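Chapter summary example: a protein plus zinc ion.
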Amino acid sequence: MSDQTSCACPKCTCAVSDNAIERDGELYCSQACATGHADGSEGCGHNCSCGK
Ligand SMILES: [Zn+2]
Ligand SMILES: [Zn+2]
């Protein structure tokens, strides 16, 4: 289990909550972050540009 409170995406500061996506034991605020923005997305849908 993890007690992480913010997204594990390096540039993302979004809080993770009940709907967090877990990947490799870390919590992410969105699917885009969980995949490391492999889809080329620039953000996570929470008004940050963590994928740039
Ligand atoms: Zn974010
Ligand atoms: Zn991200």
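Key point: The chain has a mean pLDDT of 92.
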